[in-house]
Amino acid sequence: MRRRLRALVAGLIALPLALAVAPSAHAADPTGMTSGFYVDPDSSAKRWAAANPGDGRASAINSAIANTPMARWFGSWSGSIGTATGAYAGAADARDKLPLLVAYNIYNRDYCGGHSAGGASSASAYATWIAQFAGGIANRPAVVLLEPDSLGDYGCMTQAQITERQGMLSGALGQFARQAPNTWVYLDAGNPGWASAATMAQRLNDAGLRQAHGFSLNISNYFTTAENTAYGNAVNSALSARYGYTKPFVVDTSRNGNGSNGQWCNPSGRRIGTPTRLGGGAEMLLWIKTPGESDGNCGVGAGSTAGQFLPEVAYKMIYGY
């Protein structure tokens, strides 16, 4: 907040009086309004390390994972959503830091995969939820990753369900534009192994990408940064050729240090990637999925539930084995 006020005052002094007007809803840059990214003080990794100080793995998990800026995920478990996002964005703002938030509650979530099934009870319930999500953030600076996987797999959905989903996402983007003008929203675009760049460009556009700041890649997946950068550039080429515009993109690097072995659900031998920062072939490289959190009851996370923190998986991911 302090840095934002200083920047605003300086900018107004520098502008001619006739030009000192409020910027458009998408003109604000939250990275320039804050002094770095926010470290979630209540992440699953941080809670585990604090609760298990005598565990031989705790020091490595605390230093290599828990103190890295990561996204907090919000869904049906978050209680009153406007209160929850407001408290999180407010805590970050009080420290002059930029928070990363994931909205993960779309109706018929993970409809085809099933490992993370759930979400809002109806499309109208989702519209209410996401409006409150955006309202909670309000004018504070933030980055929001909107509904991971929602555009990745249409294989088992009817056209009516696809159209409904597109409407939910477009409506969500409209809410952020109206209520959270200092938030950059990235509409999720899956990963390089899911849909062709041309297909993804069409899905993004049909879901209202023009209203978003950009799109996100590789959330909860393992493809290398180079692979994602090539894919993001190809998506933008398709957007430009077909629709006449391009968008910035971000990459989830939290678990892509060893790349993908072709499996997406708790594969073995993966490694943490480049910590959250600006640039790196994309607009930002972000830790969106917490290393060590399970993808579901599968792979090296057999017997776990999606989102459960597994310290042994986290520990091995630090060293890549």
UniProtKB/TrEMBL annotation:
UniProt GO MF annotations: hydrolase activity, hydrolyzing O-glycosyl compounds
The record's SUPFAM superfamilies line, in alphabetical order, gives: Glycosyl hydrolases family 6, cellulases
Q: Does the keyword Ligase apply?
A: no
Name of this chain's protein: Glucanase
Q: Does the keyword Disulfide bond apply?
A: yes
Active site at 149 (proton donor), 295 (proton acceptor)
Pfam families (alphabetical)? Glyco_hydro_6
- Family annotation (PROSITE patterns): GLYCOSYL_HYDROL_F6_2 (PS00656)
Q: Which domain of life is it from?
A: Bacteria
- Swiss-Prot/TrEMBL GO biological process terms: cellulose catabolic process
InterPro entries cross-referenced by the UniProt entry:
Beta_cellobiohydrolase, Beta_cellobiohydrolase_sf, Glyco_hydro_6_CS
Q: Which family does it belong to?
A: Belongs to the glycosyl hydrolase family 6.
Residues making up the signal peptide according to the UniProt record: 1-27
Going by the UniProt record, its keywords in alphabetical order are: Carbohydrate metabolism, Cellulose degradation, Disulfide bond, Glycosidase, Hydrolase, Polysaccharide degradation, Signal
Where along this sequence does the record place binding of substrate? 73, 194, 221, 264, 289, 293
State its Enzyme Commission number(s).
3.2.1.-
